Structures are given as structure tokens and as C-alpha cells.
Amino acid sequence: MDIDLIRKYNVAGPRYTSYPTVPAWEPATYSPEKWRLAVTQCHGPVSLYLHLPYCESLCTFCGCHKRITRNHQVETPYIDALLNEWTMYRSLLPDAPALSDLHLGGGTPSFFSPENLNRLMEGLLRHTSRSPGSEFSFEGHPGNTTAEHLHTLYDHGFRRVSFGVQDYDERVQKAIHRIQPFEQVRAVTEAARAAGYTSVSHDLVFGLPFQQRGGVLDTMRKTISLRPDRIAFYSYAHVPWIKGNGQRGFRDEDIPTGEAKRELYEAGRELLEAAGYREVGMDHFALPGDPLFRAMEEGTLHRNFMGYTTAPSPTLIGLGASAISDSWTAYSQNEKEVEAYLAAVGQGELPVLKGHFLSDEDLRFRRRILDLMCRFGTELEDEESLAKLRPLEEDGLVVCDDRTVRVTDRGRPFVRNVCMAIDRRLADTGQKLYSATI
Ligand SMILES: C[S@@+](CC[C@H](N)C(=O)[O-])C[C@H]1O[C@@H](n2cnc3c(N)ncnc32)[C@H](O)[C@@H]1O
Ligand code: SF4
């Protein structure tokens, strides 16, 4: 491990699920009218994301947009709003939409009853076709995903499910307020396979409070024993200034940072690679037969607001509170609060809050950042960017010639820093808005 490099490069920085990143969006470029017009110009397959924000219990590490409640009366009006919002988008899209992929994320999609998810999918798919090779997936909480959830969504074409696991160490589980025994994860993983799901993914997180090497190794061994097709091994994003009290269930001193944090990742990675998993992009692992791995090998891996994906559809429509849409030349984010979202849809309006229209320069840099995040290299002919990369080249993180930049093996853990060096919009945002890069 390059301790000196970790000390030098462990700064606050974006995860680059978009370029420009959300805090760098320029409000003056955007208006709801312009966004509607941009949607009318989106041709071809559509990638659809539905945000289902509810969870029954708060995990104190969580950085997602969620609403904690045990009141399941909230389900019906929310599903009505999603269906109405989709109807509005369908009327704007120039072609009858064919889905390249559909993802239910959250919050917790499995908070919703199978009956309500069935109604949602019937309504969504009634006027919508699927393009060849399309993939439907959802995020399930191991604590409330039932066989009925799995079968209901399977019947609508879902074949991929990801389960939030995080960590099996009891002390960590207590600190993050998420008690979740291995047996529960084993049972739901086996149930998904028995129901016919062909790709099961587990989400793990490194850098959580009280996490230690031994515990991470134990979590990894348990995970490997269930042989998930994919594993997301996320860097804990500690952003308490955004999420308020939610993340304050532990003290800052309890969180491993810098080299201690990176060591947790390396420990997990070694075990995964020894077990036949391959690293994909920045924080994912997959078995060699998995489409995510194949996409990396074939150079078609893509990254969007949901992370790494195999479906590089230029149009992403995000439905639901806080969801982000992307027409390739523009981004648009929905109202973040559920009440504001429901009120806007109730009035027959697109529930948009803010967005950004990309300039020609943004579009060029978007391509470069995507290349770096997905392929660890890009074409780059402008002097200014190359000059900014020189210090990273001196540290052995990248190799540049006058047309290209390639991230070295040594530089891979610092790929976010490489992107930051060429990011033309970062200076506008103030880095305090981001979590640490390591
Ligand atoms: C929407 S949740 C998954 C579904 C379900 N809500 C659950 O928790 O099982 C998405 C995933 O994001 C990851 N995540 C949430 N907050 C995070 C944070 N602050 N840093 C890194 N990863 C985080 C977790 O691994 C979590 O499983
Ligand atoms: S980790 Fe999942 S269940 Fe926990 S609060 Fe976040 S979205 Fe909800």
C-alpha cells in the first residue's frame, strides 16, 4: 500500500456518477420548459429508474434519499404518483418507449407490498415495450424481501436483485443500527436463486465505524460462501453535513480513514480475487461470467447515477422523489421531499426541482470522465488538462503522451483524484460537499 500517496491524495472529492457532478450544476442553464423540450428530442431506448424512498428503520450510515416510516398507507399514493409521472413522460417522449433497462432503487423497494409492486409494474409496462437484451433489477432489503416479492417481480421480467448486506460484524451492525444475521442473507439469496434470478448481487461497505481487518475478512468469507454474481464494495461516504443527524449515531473517531480505510479495501479485494472475482471499475467485483465483467472486458461499461451498469442508453428517466434524469445533453432532478414531489405530480406538473444543460465543453469532459471511471484511460489532447496531470504522472498514478492518459495499476485507487485533476467545474463547488476520495 502506498501510504504516502494515500496521505497526499485523500481529499474530499466526487464519486463521478455524473459530469458535471450535482453540486457543480449551473441553475441558470436550466428551466423546466427547456427540460420538457429536451425530453421531446430523446430517441431510442430508455433506461428507467424508479426511486422508492421508504424504509422502516434508519441505518445510521446511510447516504441515500430515504424516508423512515412504519406507516404502509404511504404506498398507494406514492405508486399512483409514479404512474402519473410516467404518463407525463410518455406523452413527451417522441417514440413509444422501449426499455433498455429498469431499476427499482431506494430507500427500500421491498418496503412496498408485492400487491403494490405488481400494480406498479402492470401500470408501467402496459404502454411500454422492452428492447432486446433489456435487464430488470431491484434493490431488496434482506430483512423484508419475501418469496412473494421475488416471484411477483420475476413474473414481470426481473432477473437481477441486489441485497444490502454492509457488514456482518456485530459491533459494526450495532453502530450503524442495522442488525442483520448471516442466516437471513443466506436464506434470501437462496430464495432469489430458487425463484429464477440469474444475477444476485451483495452490497458491502468498507470504512464503517469500528470496522477492522478481521471483521472485513470474516464478512468477505461469508459473502464468498454464498457466491453472489456481483459484489459492490462501496467506500463509506461520510457526509454528515448533508444527512443531518442520521449519520451521527457514532463519533468521527470511530470511523477508519486514510490508510486504515484503504487497508480494509485491500484485505477484502485480496480475498475476492483469490475466490475468482474480478475488480470492475472503482468499487465493484464480478464473477467472470457476469455481464458487468464482460462489459468491462469489451469496453462497453457505463456509469450513471446508479453506479456501474451494462446499459449505456443515452436517455435515463428517473421517476420518484429525488430521482435524476439524463437526456445526455441535460440533467434534471426531481423534488427531494416526498410531499413536494406528490404535490407537483398531483397538479399535473413534472415534479422537477433543478438541473443542468451541458455545454460543448461539458460534453467533451463528460466523455473523458466516463472513460477514466470505466476504462481507466481516455484521449486528452488539451494542454491545460495534460499540465494538471503532470504531478500525478510524477507520482506514478498516470502515464500521459500528447494524446492520451492511462491510469496505472498504482493509480487505480486514485482514479477519482485523476478525474478531479481535469474536472473543469470542480472549482465552482467547494470540495466540502463531497466525501473523502479514499
Ligand atoms: C438503497 S440501499 C439498498 C437497499 C436497501 N435499502 C438496503 O439497505 O438493503 C443502497 C446501498 O447503498 C449503500 N450505501 C448507503 N449509504 C452509503 C454510504 N453512506 N456510503 C457508502 N455506501 C452507502 C449500501 O451498501 C446500500 O446497500
Ligand atoms: S441502508 Fe437501505 S434500509 Fe438502511 S436507511 Fe439506507 S436505504 Fe434505508
From TrEMBL:
Subcellular localization, as worded in the UniProt entry: Cytoplasm
Class of the enzyme per the UniProt entry, highest EC level: oxidoreductase
Record GO biological process: protoporphyrinogen IX biosynthetic process
Coiled-coil stretches noted in the UniProt entry, renumbered to this chain: none
Entry keyword set: 4Fe-4S, Cytoplasm, Iron, Iron-sulfur, Metal-binding, Oxidoreductase, Porphyrin biosynthesis, S-adenosyl-L-methionine
Entry superkingdom: Bacteria
Binding site residues for S-adenosyl-L-methionine 1: Y49, G106, E139, I324
Catalytic activity: coproporphyrinogen III + 2 S-adenosyl-L-methionine = protoporphyrinogen IX + 2 5'-deoxyadenosine + 2 L-methionine + 2 CO2
Radical SAM core domain location: 40-278
Cofactor note: Binds 1 [4Fe-4S] cluster. The cluster is coordinated with 3 cysteines and an exchangeable S-adenosyl-L-methionine.
Protein name: Coproporphyrinogen-III oxidase
